[in-house]
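User: Working on a comparison across species. This one is Putative auto-transporter adhesin, head GIN domain from Sunxiuqinia elliptica. Can you predict its structure so I can line it up against the others?
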Amino acid sequence: METMKTSRVTLLLLAVALMLSSCLEDLSIHGNGRLATEDRWVAPFNKVKVTGEYNVFIVPGDEYTVEVTAESNLLGHIVTDRDGDKLKIRTRGINNLHHTIPIEIYITTPHLNQVSLSGPGLIQTENFTTNKFEVFLSGSGLIESNVDTNELEANLSGSGEIRLSGFCKHSDLLISGSGKIQSYGMEQESCHATISGSGDILVNASDWIEARISGSGDLLFINWPEISSNISGSGKVINDN
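Assistant: Here's the predicted structure for Putative auto-transporter adhesin, head GIN domain from Sunxiuqinia elliptica:
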């Protein structure tokens, strides 16, 4: 009797799983292969948050503009709206977009203080000047930022990569995933670097670097800064000159 009850429960669970799978498939939207471009009106913003597999390119400009290029039947499911001082880019509802052509979003803004990416997408920023700049990445994506700033913060909690170039007086770089923060192209005077995962941080600093490592990742540096370190993991501080 107990075996029959167990079998019924198993069959019921399988039926529910099949129904859920069918529902999720119904929410999948496949691109039609016909490329289209749409200009979006947006209110002023100085931060950009991207959730999903979008390629986002941000450059300085006198006006706030957003141009979305995607397959025509997907455009209506790509949301670009403002929340406070932040422009959010995401997929409408819980739809799953299957594109055959990469979705590209081109943005201009006079000011940019922060970018964040969650997912396997791409964010590229070029030639911004600001007092403080923040970069947040969670997932397998890529963020490439060129910026001139007094204070830089970069936080990576996934398997992706953050690539930094330009100049900053001081940086705070933190990695808790398996990815990489590559900042050899970013001239820094000083840097606090924290590693609690298996990822690596690469730093170009002229004055000093303070490293805290509690994971298996390494801190690699170029230039000739003073080094102080606190290591409780298997990671190392490596002179890469």
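For your comparison, note: Residues 1-28 form one domain.

User: Helpful, thanks.
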